Amino acid sequence: MSLRKWLWGLSLSIWLLFTVWYTDFGGPLTDSEIRQGLQNLSVRGGSPELAKELVAFLKNDSGDQFIMVNNLQLNPDPPPMPGFAEGGTAAEYTDHYMEHMYVQLLKRASHPVFVAAGQGFVADITGIDRESASGWDSAALFRYRSRRSFLEIITHPEMGDRHDYKIAALNKTIAYVVEPVFYLSDLRFILLLILGLLTALIDIAIFGRPSANPVTRRIPD
Question: Given a cut of 60, is residue 11 above it in pLDDT?
Fold first, then answer.
């Protein structure tokens, strides 16, 4: 194999390996996977309404990635929690919760894609009171590889205790799921562009630009 083919083959191999890891090829969740996950969750309790919505969410699995949209308002005076002798701050409780979450997310090709600070201005409100719709301190978007990965994360043994710290850190929050239709921030697409550009630049640096063949005109007799 020539050096040029090896260069482009290496770049393609890196992208394919990343894509295989970043994509869930297992298809929609099976009934047995859902049943097992719900058994693990039932030990922790929870509201019947939430359990019903979770079942519907899992059963309607498309097998694709999704984004969790989070709106957060921190509690300026959170209650005392175990492990924080004099009571912790909302930021400390959140860090304690995310210390576990980041590990579990990244192991499953899930990660934050957008984090922003709230600015207090609410442009439109319809069907909800202003107090509930405003006052957000931050917003965050988290990409999940699939509903299978999501189920694995929320049924992890450490999730129950850690989640209590998140709730203690907040005055209010809402987290809901959207499935991308147009998503240019997909890392598979971004990595393809980056690898293609870098490989092209290395190709030019090593092999140079192809020389243009001069056009020869025949001079009539």
Answer: yes
